[in-house]
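thread: overnight batch results

M.L. [08:02]
morning all. the overnight job finished for the chain we discussed friday. pasting input first so we're all looking at the same thing
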Amino acid sequence: MTPGAEVGNLVRVIQGVSRGLPPRKITANTATTITWDIPMVINPGDVWIIEEPTWPYTCDTTSFSNANPLAVVTMNMPTGNFVDENLLISGFTVDVNGNESPDGDAPIREDWVFGAEGLSKVAGLVFQMQGTLGVESNAAQPLYLNRPVTVGDVKAYVQAAPTGSGITFTIYVGGTAWLALTIPAGQTVVVATPSQIAALTEIPANTAVSIGITAVGSTFPGSNLSVFIYS
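M.L. [08:03]
and the structure it wrote out:
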């Protein structure tokens, strides 16, 4: 952990003696320890997670009535499109008077969502580099397009953010450096700026497009890099 980076977030026990208690607010952290505000026991071997201080995304299901706790109920709800996101998912019940079930009683699940970038732009090329990253001149298999493409956007995501310093990668077209981007330390995404996109040359058909990683985090390199090039 980066010292001080978790202050304000929450710690929740999902396996152990304090499972079922509401999460506690983190007041301080070092690289190996965390301190929280209200007493809560965490024993060796317990499983705990760190989460954001609020639920950044919520949605309501349709109303339903179920007096039998053994009956199966199916709920449909709208969800946003999350791209390469580690999510904590929870459900809360709300009665006819608007009273919501306590946070500590809510069932929770952790999930990793790969998602998709939607239909506004088409991902012409996708590079995926799995595992802990390292400096590599050819970090992924070169790719080719069957027609010339004028690029409209370039984005990159990592599952685990670099610490100490950022991740810098360069995209090459036909062996020539085409675009270099950096995911800053502690961040998980970088998006090419409009001026960077405007300066890019068209990617010719049947030309090798490759990627090289020139720098990684000095404390933790970062992991699972995905780079999207949109037409």
